[in-house]
UniProtKB/TrEMBL annotation:
Source domain of life: Bacteria
One GO term of the biological process aspect: intracellular iron ion homeostasis
Protein name: Hemerythrin HHE cation binding domain-containing protein
Length: 243
């Protein structure tokens, strides 16, 4: 994609509409970049490091499969229900993504099973192919955040979009949901994270909130945690000083 002055820009500050994609796509970008960097630096002579790195890749691929499935089932279905064929572009890209995800899983398995002296080219192949997949995904997500969001906003009210998103989240595997929360904490800005957690506080029981905050806290430095704690009405831990 060539970025020009006329390229579509997704700006949360220009509108107050419900943005189905913003938080999860920020989380997925952070997860993809972090995983790519880990594969780039993996010690292929260290079985433990190799296994841990490939286990992380397995989790990334699980997240991406889940993401495609849920966008198909809830978001694309909503678009198609009121504007037939309007989700075709990204639905077609999802088919290609699932094939790429399967190919990356095969490459990871080949690396996992290889003898030490066979690993260098396999590790480099996996790193480069994951990078290319991420590049495609970045353009895909931008299209969703601009074109698909414009379609959703034309077809649905914010209350309806909130309801669709709620059904999608309720359908997520608990492990995926927990891990996503951690990546959102790492990826969102303070205002977005506070908005997310305050929304959860309105609906989640206390024990679920405690578990959620336990997932979030290790992903924030002391200053960011203190800022979030103030925003959601919790006292920051003793000794934490907010700038
Ligand atoms: Fe998508």
């Amino acid at each position: 994609m060539e970025l020009t002055a006329t390229a579509p820009v997704a700006s949360a500050s220009r509108h107050a509409r419900h943005d189905t994609y913003r938080n999860i796509h920020k989380a997925l970008r952070a997860l993809m970049f972090d995983t790519l960097a880990r594969i780039g630096r993996v010690d292929i002579e260290d079985r433990e490091d190799l296994d841990a790195t490939l286990a992380r890749l397995d989790r990334l691929l699980a997240h991406l499969r889940s993401h495609v499935a849920h966008e198909n089932e809830f978001i694309h279905a909503a678009i198609e229900a009121r504007r037939p064929s309007a989700a075709q572009t990204t639905a077609g890209q999802h088919v290609e993504h699932l094939a790429s995800i399967a190919a990356l899983a095969d490459e990871a398995q080949a690396l996992r099973a290889a003898a030490v002296d066979q690993r260098p080219p396999l590790a480099l192949r996996l790193y480069r192919h994951l990078a290319l997949f991420i590049a495609e995904n970045l353009e895909h997500m931008h299209f969703e955040e601009t074109t698909n969001n414009a379609t959703l906003w034309a077809l649905y009210s914010d209350a309806e979009l909130d309801e669709i998103h709620g059904r999608l989240v309720a359908h997520l595997d608990p492990r995926i949901l927990t891990e996503v929360l951690g990546w959102m904490a790492a990826a969102l800005n303070p205002q977005e994270l506070a908005e997310l957690v305050i929304g959860m506080q309105r609906e989640a029981p206390p024990e679920a909130m405690r578990a959620a905050l336990a997932e979030i806290r290790p992903r924030l430095d002391e200053r960011c945690w203190a800022r979030l704690a103030r925003a959601i009405g919790l006292p920051p831990a003793p000794g934490l000083v907010e700038a």
